[in-house]
Specification:
This protein has helices at about 75-85, 100-115, 155-160, 180-190, 205-215, 235-240, 260-270, 320-325, 330-345; strands spanning about 1-10, 15-25, 30-35, 45, 50-55, 55-60, 65, 70, 90-95, 125, 125-130, 170-175, 195, 215-220, 245-250, 275, 290, 295-300, 305, 365, 375-380, 380-385. The two termini are about 25 Å apart. It has 9 helices and 22 strands. The protein has 2 domains: about 1-55 and about 360-385, Urease, subunit C, domain 1 (Roll), CATH 2.30.40; about 55-345, Metal-dependent hydrolases (TIM Barrel, Alpha-Beta Barrel), CATH 3.20.20. It is an alpha/beta fold and about 400 residues long. The strands form 4 sheets. Strands 6, 9, 10, 11, 12, 13, 14, 15 and 16 form a 9-stranded parallel sheet that branches. Strands 1, 2, 3, 4, 5, 20, 21 and 22 form an 8-stranded mixed sheet that branches.
């Protein structure tokens, strides 16, 4: 069975969206056609009538949604998050874990392994993102200090549960200035982990060492790191002035003001910025009080706050982040790069994900003029379709 998408505006890194037809066979983009009369009894045809067709969004940092927290979710719960995500344009994601007891980590990893085996219409689970526990207690944000660790030797890393699947992605956010931080980065890179810098007060010298060791990305840039000062470059200034460093942004207008979002993206360029939601379990539920990570988190007008008066993640989706960046004047192709291709590059899967190209996975999302999701395709299968 094949699928033909007609009259789509393909959003690709090459430039402005261009009208074309797209033929999907199995889980692959088979052909991109200027126009097509191809249709057989084995071909399903969907006329997109000029909708913008993006590569599926890839979410590398999310703690939960739709009432489900990745820390205590079952495999089926994670699938329900994935279904929520697919309705909001995400086709692949990394469940993100906060510092916790080892038995909590173990349960979470077992659930992630189970979710990776479930065949469904949900966004694909790619692996795991450990946010911590090797981070700076002075930049804890909403994370719980009692579970933070330093690194002495490989045994400290060996006790962290990992996903027993060859193609599973493992990512860690860490602070390179903690005890043994640079050696930790080297050890993680030996094990093929993706390493990102965050929750940090590292000096420029330590950050230079971290970059040399293999940590070239920064987590929720500007949040939970030392700011730029005119006499002290800080982690933010270091990230802004290094072209070989990439970063991700929570584009909600709360974690970072709209004008600063635009400034960072213009300064770093859309080649080096990825979008994340950093969403918590309350995402999709509206304002209210929620019990998350063992404490009360209040959501008011889309802003989260815990008992310590810290912002505790977001309640946006990647679709909200896309809308934000479009509203700031970035083009569809630039936003597609930040929501799809750059995250794929960060995770080392851009050979197969992140852009609309022949031979790549058919992970696609069609948006209307108001940036509402009208169609989501994951691995060549229709995951969500809004009725006309």
């Amino acid at each position: 069975m094949s699928l033909l998408l007609r009259n789509a505006r393909l959003v690709r890194p090459q430039g402005p969206a261009a009208p074309a037809d797209l033929l999907i066979k199995g889980d692959r983009i088979q052909r991109i056609l200027d126009s097509s009369t191809e249709s057989t009894s084995s071909t399903q045809v969907i006329d997109l009538d000029g909708l913008a067709l993006y590569p599926g969004f890839i979410e590398a940092h999310i703690h939960g949604a739709a009432g489900v927290d990745t820390m205590d979710a079952s495999a089926e719960d994670l699938t329900s998050i994935g279904e929520f995500l697919s309705r909001n344009g995400v086709t692949a994601w990394l469940p993100t874990l906060v510092p916790a007891r080892l038995e909590q980590y173990q349960q979470a990893i077992e659930s992630i392994e189970g979710a990776m085996q479930i065949k469904s219409k949900a966004a694909q689970v790619l692996g795991v993102h450990y946010e911590g526990p090797f981070v700076n207690s002075e930049q804890c944000g909403a994370l719980h200090r009692e579970h933070f660790k330093t690194f002495k030797d490989a045994a400290d890393l060996n006790e962290l549960p990992t996903i027993d699947q060859d193609d599973a992605i493992h990512m860690m956010t860490l602070a390179p200035e903690i005890g043994g931080g640079i050696e930790l980065i080297k050890e993680l890179r030996k094990r093929n982990w993706i390493v990102s810098i965050g929750h940090t007060r590292a000096s420029a010298n330590v950050l230079d060492q971290a970059l040399t060791a293999g940590a070239g990305h920064m987590t929720h840039f500007m949040n939970a790191m030392t700011p730029l000062h005119h006499r002290d470059i800080g982690a933010v200034g270091w990230g802004l002035t290094h072209d070989d460093v990439t970063c991700d942004l929570i584009a909600d207008g709360i974690h970072i003001d709209r004008s600063i979002l635009k400034f960072i993206t213009k300064t770093k360029s859309t080649e080096r910025v990825s979008l994340i939601s950093d969403a918590i379990a309350a995402a999709g539920l509206g304002d209210g009080d929620y019990k998350i990570w063992g404490e009360q988190i209040n959501v008011t007008n889309g802003r989260t706050q815990n008992d310590r008066r810290s912002i505790a993640g977001s309640v946006i989706t990647m679709l909200d982040a896309v809308r934000m960046m479009l509203s700031l004047g970035f083009s569809e192709s630039e936003v597609a790069r930040m929501a799809s291709l750059n995250p794929a590059r960060l995770l080392g899967i851009d050979f197969d994900y992140g852009s609309i190209d022949e031979g790549k996975r058919a992970d696609l999302v069609a948006l209307d003029d108001a940036s509402n999701v009208r169609l989501a395709i994951i691995g060549g299968r229709i995951a969500f379709q809004e009725s006309p």
